[in-house]
Amino acid sequence: MSEHDPQSTPSRQPATAPDLHGQIALVTGASRGLGRHIAVALARAGARVAVNYAHSEADAAQTVQLIEQEGGQAQAFRADVTDEQSVGALVDAIDSALGPVDVLVNNATGPQPMLAIEESRWSDFADQLDFFVKAPLLLVQAVLPGMKARRAGSIVNIGSEVVQIGNARFSSYVTAKSAMIGMTRSWANELGPHGIRVNLLAPGFIPVERHAGVDPEGYRVKVPLQRMGEPSDIADAAVFLASPQSRFVTGQCLSVNGGYTTGI
Predict the structure, then answer these.
(1) For 212, which DSSP code?
(2) Span 18-256 CATH architecture
(3) Is 173 a catalytic residue?
């Protein structure tokens, strides 16, 4: 077949923006921080968004308001994603109010204490595993019957570059985020035959509310792209992994950090 044979030339279609119209997306921990930005971005792409929160109803309402101001659809749902009964009730409520979940973004997190090995207790590790292993497991188990029935679904786990860096005095968090990568790959293999994709998004240091007062300059100077990342950088990547544009991508860990971990 010659290089000019039409059959040997890949078809070229114009690039289009990710389209999530008709999709229901659940974002955990979406009342503020990266979760809020991800929820807003998914709504911009056309998804109806379930905004999960644990504590602040006012913050969750603000996320919903931001989405609605842009013409999107969203509703807030309170739930402790580390509790099995709470997760079951959450998914049932979303199904009744919006429809079955097509996109699950496991973003929720709790306190992230920095502790020396001598200061660490097993409970410190268990706390992190609850958010980054137990909660995703409970949520996936809850949405899986519907995804399998439709033979479609996208699960996006929010990891971290700390797995590559191995930050000192942060072993409980690093350990739990490392476990999330293995879990993602195993689930991708298991769920791929059902048309369900599972990927992990690993952000770099993206200053949000929890980082108030932290000087990012020491980090910024080591970023090859020579700027700090913004929440929109993570949100756009999450939309890509959730959308049909990544239809042949599963089991992957996508680092979004301006190249910070390139040399690691």
Answers:
(1) T
(2) 3-Layer(aba) Sandwich (3.40)
(3) yes
